[in-house]
Amino acid sequence: MLERTADAFGYAPAFLGKAGECHNILEQIKLTVLFVISTQILGMNIQKPFDPLLGETFQGYIGGIPVYLEQVSHQPSTSLYLMKCESFELFGCTHPKASMHFNSVTGDNVGTMNILFPKTNTKLFCDRPTVEVSGLLYGDRKVKLINKFHIICEAERLAC
Question: The whole model's pTM is what?
Fold first, then answer.
């Protein structure tokens, strides 16, 4: 499960790395929107994950950038994460939540994503949209984002 969470950050070097080099707050927010959407797409996996043990850790590299995760709670299953380089810092906590329906499943990663761009000292707070996979028993299989998500920059009084 920790490795799957890290996999969801696969586009961080591309989107957040570029945003960290940019000095325009609106461009940073636009690139962050792309990153948040990408986490939901990359995070989808139909294989059942192993539930990590309390205190279990995962360390790896994504695009040469170190990423660290630790399981800090079992019920609810909650993980902390940190991905840090010169152009950005991504950190926060997450716990997955899924709901089964007759012909679909919805999933959330509950928790606030914190993104810091050190070169501009910009701090963004993000939540993530809910993903719905429908057509599990009949009909066409569809994947869609079904609710709003937010990106907030308190210092600049901007929200998306």
Answer: 0.88
Other beta carbons less than 10 A from residue 148's beta carbon: 8
Residues 124 and 115: their CA atoms lie apart, in Å, by 5
Q: Over the stretch 108-146, which tens digit does the pLDDT of each residue have?
A: 888 999 999 999 999 999 998 888 989 999 999 998 888
Domain ranges of the chain: 2-95+112-128
Residue found under tokens 């009084």: 157
| 20-35 tens-digit pLDDT | 999 999 999 999 999 9
Rounded Cα distance between 60 and 128, Å, is 23
